[in-house]
Amino acid sequence: MDQFAVTFLPDNITVRVAAGTSIMEAANQAGLPLKSTCGGAGTCGRCAIKVQEGKVEVRGGHLPARLREEGYSLACQTMVMGDAIIAIPPESRLGRHQVLLQDKGRLQDSLTDLLGSYPLDPACSVASLVLPEPTLTENTSDASRLLATLRKEKGLEGQLDLVFLQELPDSLRQANWQVDVTLAAGSNRLIRITPLGETRAFGLAIDLGTTTVVVSLLDLRSGERVMRKGSYNRQAVYGDDVISRIIHATSNEGGLEELRQAALATINDLITAVLTSGGIDPAEVTAATIAGNTTMTHLLLGINPRYLRLQPYIPAAAELPVLKAAEVGLKINPLAPVQIFPAVASYVGGDIVSGALFTRIASSEELTLFIDIGTNGEMVLGNSDWLISCACSAGPAFEGSGITCGMRAMEGAIEGVSIDPDTLEVELEVIGGGRPSGICGSGLIDCLAKLRRAGIIDRTGNFQEVATPRLRTTDEGPEFVLAWATQSSTQRDIVLTAADIKNLIRSKGAVFAGIQSLLKTVSLEIDAIERIIIAGGFGNYLHIPNAVEIGLLPDLPPEKYIFAGNTSLKGAELALLSQPAWQETLELARRMTYLELSAGNLFMEEFVSALFLPHTRLELFPSVGNGSGDERRSG
Ligand code: FES
């Protein structure tokens, strides 16, 4: 088949691809992955590119007329038919290196101390042994000699694997029978044998998110965190939510393996980067923990995810045995034990269990609501006596997805919006302080609250007739201009459309309806909640009074709110360092009740009531009020 050269600008990277390959696929091969919500179906409009020159075939897809007129087409619907030069606008790129790794410093002390009251008792340990040398008369095998010494000196029954045995004879003799053996906790499987006194032991905690993946390297002997690195999950080219990934995995031949390899490549590249900069040999990494949602875990392990999205939504496995790194495909010591966080249900996964572990919900007497406002909007309510969880399908709007100018919280994102009530002029806060290129979740929340407060939208989210050039009507309907093209880094107006507002109201409505459904199931009112923990990078930028004002979060005093950062990663770090914490994780997942919101009418009734700003029942939001700005909590 004919091969053609496709050059991507502004990076000036060229790849050769077969005729008929989509620009989306070519960009992926060039290491320049593009955004996608629909997995390449041509419906999300996220992958817009400009063909500068060359021969392509554009098959169509849904792209706003305005962008088509400006010469854009959809990468997933544009096929290479000859050499071509393609420009990728910044807003279509899936940035690689802007994953938020650090919290913004608003964390409580209790949430920065990793181990807290848990002992340092990591997923593997090192035992130093001096073996009696064999003689002509004392001639038991190397393996029996090692196991007998381990039993005698440490009281442990070691377990041997073939890979270990293959190395054993030389290792023992080269070390002059004085060795360190690294053993997996619990199973006492022997992972590594090294000369006495020279042994380092590292572990990896991995947060396998739908959008981002973060790897944290820890020194298992000291309990110190060495470094963290993160990047975008390479599965994103197959769609940016779990449903589109499941569809890709189950409706394309080889789709599941493609997704498995994409996740593994993301993780293994991060592992290589971390180990190279730390000067660490992969063999020295002798344990790992992985926390991810149920779909991510299925895909990573190559387990058929089909039934996760079909009623009654049953995962293949909620709890998994401790696996070996080689089975999973991690590029570390092949015998390293890999602890994978258990799920509660198809849509409350190991990442939430990990967060619940880290935030100690299950050991606190305080009634706590834990929320991760991501695409699935998972939440847990409870205390040391009981725990109940649900997932409310909030959609990716607060992650900036499915919103015309939406983006994730990274440099260039509008994170705060002020609107002068008299002039209706707009002031923006932009992450990094430069020109804006889009708007992220916290900016969207601010924007909704301020548009309502300035009377530009009503309680249903509809635009009102107000005199400002910022409010205009296009072919796609009315929209409000937040930043003019001359002020933005994309040279295009940054807008919030009527459809975006409806989308956001649906998302916030789903989150609040999820909270109400949990409370009603256990016959409690909002006031009973003693603390609310917000997990995920989103919380770093969230302005609580505005989130309350739009009815996303309960109307409780700001001091009851706690940001906890990436709790999935921190829980994985904790379980790596402390076996009692890992055992507690398994218990926690088993005793967490799951409320399936699609069963019964409760959620739907709550959802419909929540499709107003802030809510149809204003008594649920006493500090927000109905009319003048005086009644509202200042924001
Ligand atoms: S429109 Fe191209 S990926 Fe969705």
TrEMBL record:
Annotated Gene3D superfamilies: 3.10.20.30, 3.10.20.880, Domain of unknown function (DUF4445)
Give the InterPro entries listed for this entry.
2Fe-2S_ferredoxin-like_sf, 2Fe-2S_ferredoxin-type, ATPase_NBD, Beta-grasp_dom_sf, Corrinoid_activation_enz, Raco-like_middle, Raco-like_middle_sf, RACo_C
Q: Which GO terms describe its molecular function?
A: iron-sulfur cluster binding
Pfam family of this protein, just one?
Answer: RACo_linker
Every 2Fe-2S ferredoxin-type domain range: 4-92
The domain of life for this entry's organism is Bacteria
This chain belongs to the protein called Ferredoxin
The species is: Moorella thermoacetica (strain ATCC 39073 / JCM 9320)
